[in-house]
Protein 1
Amino acid sequence: MFAKNTLASAVAAAIGVSAVGVAQADTLFFPYVALSQTVTTIVSVINTTDDNWSNDGPPQAAGFLHYRLYYKNVANGEGLTNSCEEYNEYLSTSRNDIQTIDLSGVYGSDTLGVLFNDPGVNNPWVAANRDYALGRYVTPARGYLTVDNSDGTTWDTNGDDGDTMAGEAFVFEFGSGAAWGYQAYQSNSEDLRWAASQSPTPVALMPFAGVEGSTSDITTAFFVTPVSGNQTPDVENAYRARVEYFTTTRGDLFDRDENVISGTLQQDVVCVGRVDATSLLSDGTLVRLGNGGWANLWSYPVLDGQMAAFDPTRSTGLISVSDRSLASDGAVVIKLEYSVGGMFNGESMNDTFNNAIMYGPDANNPWPR
């Protein structure tokens, strides 16, 4: 693995200049990527325009896309409230190109992370000789990815309509074959507040593995990626959001017999993080909820430890509020449910399963795309 200063030097040499902002470019937002010795994230990037970047930033026809990976290195102690580091590259593209990439470089190890025998004729990625596997030297890690071109927001003479990119990802545990995926969000700027999952969102909670009385061995976790008015800051991302269950004024969530059970906890996440569903419950509450139930999951921004709402007139972009119901939606939330065998509904199960749900934005979200 590269030392941090060596990697930073390599990036500076490859790019030639400091990173530039997204401005009015078309931007793809992959809100969660995971990289390890047994898990990788495969992303497909579709670009339909000639409005692209040169290899050091300024716009030019048929050139480069700007890839930015924000990540926490798990081996270095990721921590829910640690900031992400940023690594970015300008990588070759062409109009109507699709590039499928293994971000960890496990697959495509001798093709710069590019998969599926991409010829590299119209998009000369081979000649450019730049590594698309942005996470190759930071594994194990989790994070998020953005990709942008230089296309504007309105129709122009080459036929673009402002929405010129699309993307998909699947997170692949190649040891067992378990996988899950999602469609990337597409935006016209670095402001991705509109992509935050609706808060509150009702969530179903499966029986918890290892809890006395549970009929199933299922692990549930939430992948949380806070969003802001600038999702592509230079160097690092220290934006913070809070997640918690809060369902009624009497208590916090329901069991499977419609009883309100109180005793929940909050978790703060900076940049990106995995929050186990059980970590949002006190020990006493967890024992009473062995077979799960349902809850309203809140996710909202935090400013100086206080609940907050977005306020574009302030330099911080946030203003403290007195109640979570006044706070803005603050993070993209993905629920993952998985099992590596054991019991399912009281019956023996030897197979592995993996299921993920990305909770969508509020349809009435006021933020522009």
Protein 2
Amino acid sequence: MQSVLHAVAMVPASIPSPAWSGFDIPLPWGSLRIHAYALCILAGIIAGLWLTSVRWTKRGTPEGSLWDIAIWAIPFGIVGGRLYHVFSSPDAYFGPGFDGTGDLSLIPQIQRGGLGIWGAVVLGAFGAWIGCRRAGVKLTAFLDAAAPGLLLAQAIGRWGNYFNQELFGGPTTLPWGLQIDPNNANFPAGLPADTLFHPTFLYESLWNLVAW
């Protein structure tokens, strides 16, 4: 019994902030930074495509048609997700009240985080519509096959927010509170350094898995 209590006491009362956010690949002319955020997004896309492929194939669809659609849907979805984020959180890009003091060069830097799911769904669906027309298949059939894959992709991709230390909620004292590095630019000003936050990225990830 004592050993059990000791083991329970050793369980951390919070989710630690990540000590790793990516790695560098040395190149002859410098280095290439591979961000954990990008890896999570990529893993989500691959998992979503795999599940969609399984469901799509069971429908007896033309061979290769999924990739004909995906090549349109994925880029459109990424652009849509980025645009949604930029215009729903515009201060960093355009300045407060669109006063022109922002940094427009940050807009294409998606490795820093910032992809809104609603924009990704809207423009991704538009890209899928283009792909379906070119492949000669019904958009509704594709969307029905892809819906669970989208949930799976979102569940995995949300972990990119963990590595970027973003998309967290308000302060909490719950045992699954999330630690955020107080030196991180996303740490809210005026709060004690040991403040824990709701891991809203985790809530959404789990919710997507439940729905899936």
